[in-house]
Write a structure and sequence with these properties.
alpha/beta; Rossmann fold; Alpha-Beta Plaits; 2 domains; six-stranded mixed beta sheet; four-stranded parallel beta sheet; 14 strands; 19% strand
Amino acid sequence: MILTFDDVLRARKQIKDAVILTPTVEATRLSMHLGIDLYLKLENLQHTSAFKARGALNKLLTLDENQRKKGVIACSAGNHAQGIAYNATRLGIPSTIVMPNGTPFNKIKRTQEFGAKVITFGNGFDESVGETMRLAEEKDLTFIHPFDDKAVVAGQGTLGLEMMEQVPDLDVIVVPIGGGGLIAGVATAVKNINPDIIVIGAQAKNFDAVLAKREGREFTGGEATLAEGIAVKSPSENDMKIIDKLVDHIYSATEEEIEKAIFDLISDEKLVVEGATGAALAVIKNNIDTLKGKKVGMVVSGGNIDSRTLSTLIMRGLVRDGRITRLRFEINDTPGQLSDISRIIGESGANVVEVIHQRMMQTVSLKQAELNVVIEARDQMHVDDIVQTLKDAGFKVCIKSRS
């Protein structure tokens, strides 16, 4: 696969009337907190809430009439699946999607809602793709690879063109990497417009296969990751050639760093994003000293995060920030104790979220009780003030949940 700048330009002409020209906006609060000028390319605003719709559409438009009639098949953890399903249905093309076992239910449901037949098979992309290829041959379907296809990669590169038009003086662009298709397309586009722009790739540490290839080491990861959309063990060799030529740096982020970055985007910018985008922001935060004084663009690759995962992530973030805290009391088992504690917490400006009053467990003496109170406060300093007030009132209390 030899991808050229002209391929990306042609892709843009092909798809421009059917994809959303997503904005690239300044991340005001994050820029202030990080000390850089950060701009976000909001691909979570696409029809399918992810950039994958670009490459999927560009590929579908290359099919002949016979291929369209027989249909297409793809293997994807979600975003490529939705991009294929949405655009195939819109074009009247039957589509089948093979998804790995454990794919978040919201991605399966949305893919089906877009009109595709969904089959779950295998543990991860690399196992599922074998079944996909078998079905493609058996049913004579056109296989559309999520990142190792020239038309797909060219389609993804169109968002790079848009970023350079929207913020022409970007110094750096940070792009999530899974199989390599997105960054290969984006790097081809932006480096042809400005050869001096720095392109940085971001991976989840648990799936840093591209970084491993660059460093000449064997990839040994594969553990569960919040960034399942970029959880690829075997990146495209074709994309790797482009990456080696055009991508300046590749860094990885831990699961904790990705989680915190997603929470930052929710808290500071009110953006719901998935793990791949969290990896990109985490890489920026980890390398902030080298980015000071630069105008940095970041691809918000998608927003298809599982709602249960998101709910848990938000609560953990609130705990980490001290806004949700569990206090443990050892109190005399006499009337009025809980009432006094609740009154002090309320007068201090916090809310009581949950109370667990324990008499039966043998962690305290028979004449005492253990009380766990979950409170909602402004921040950790507020919690410290409340705890001190409670201690001044004679209560034996300690903080049981804090980062």
